[in-house]
């Protein structure tokens, strides 16, 4: 059994990949997930090339059976869980008068539904880690849209608000057991997910994945009595409405 282990969803690119890389560099064995195997495989190869111990499970976490498989594979290989990163999600916008039920259901499943399921399926592992070192950690990726609603991104904003609210609830429910939860609320991050902004917002106006890593890394070593419920990453001198 490794000394520390983590699960990271949405780990093929962007924030999830950056956090997986950081956790690997900190000595964590990793189980990583992404929806598409063809995107996950090269990311896993790059992590393994750096000497990190990695288990990979492809599939959409909007499917409950995929959630269960990720946890089962992690449990079988590593036997412990110190950090859970619920990062998987999709960004999509539609005007409310044009909203399709398919798009609504996709975002509810991909952006929120899997998060409570991962807590449920990993709770015993998180409790065991917390009993050992009093700093079990869950990172839930929300968005700045989870702090203020945005036109056209109404459903996305609603799911990300749900992530923030659920994170707050988990701290109240599990905090006494030293299972700490942090919601990440970034503005536009320079990742493939923001490629649609090409020509509207330059990448140097965006939050970088290195910024996310720089503030998440210290959470791994907080004292037992300290919880950081959310981290907000604003763009310097820039308002989202300027780009939409």
From TrEMBL:
Protein name: Ketoacyl reductase
Keywords: Oxidoreductase
Species the sequence originates in: Capillimicrobium parvum
UniProt record similarity statement: Belongs to the short-chain dehydrogenases/reductases (SDR) family.
UniProt-listed InterPro entries: NAD(P)-bd_dom_sf, SDR, SDR_fam
Coiled coil (residue ranges): none
Alphabetical list of Pfam families matching this protein: adh_short (PF00106)
Enzyme Commission designation: 1.3.1.-
GO molecular-function terms, A-Z: oxidoreductase activity
Keyword Ribosomal protein: no
């Amino acid at each position: 059994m490794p000394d520390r282990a983590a699960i990271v969803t949405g780990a093929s690119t962007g924030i999830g990949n950056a956090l997986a890389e950081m956790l690997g560099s900190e000595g964590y064995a990793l189980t990583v997930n992404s929806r598409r195997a063809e995107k996950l495989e090269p990311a896993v190869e790059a992590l393994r090339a750096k000497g990190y111990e990695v288990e990979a499970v492809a599939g959409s976490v909007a499917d409950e059976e995929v959630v269960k498989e990720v946890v089962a594979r992690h449990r079988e290989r590593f036997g412990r869980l110190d950090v859970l990163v619920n990062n998987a999600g999709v960004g999509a916008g539609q005007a409310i008068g044009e909203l399709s039920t398919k798009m609504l259901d996709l975002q509810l499943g991909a952006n929120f539904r899997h998060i409570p399921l991962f807590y449920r399926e990993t709770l015993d592992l998180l409790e065991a880690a917390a009993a050992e070192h009093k700093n079990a950690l869950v990172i839930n990726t929300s968005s700045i849209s989870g702090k203020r609603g945005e036109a056209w991104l109404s459903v996305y904003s609603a799911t990300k608000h749900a992530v923030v609210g659920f994170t707050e609830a988990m701290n109240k429910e599990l905090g006494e057991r030293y299972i700490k939860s942090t919601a990440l609320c970034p503005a536009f991050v320079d990742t493939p997910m923001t490629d649609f902004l090409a020509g509207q917002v330059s990448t140097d106006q965006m939050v970088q994945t290195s910024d996310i890593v720089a503030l998440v890394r210290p959470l791994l070593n907080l004292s037992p009595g300290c919880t950081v419920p959310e981290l907000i990453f604003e763009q310097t001198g820039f308002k989202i409405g300027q780009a939409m």
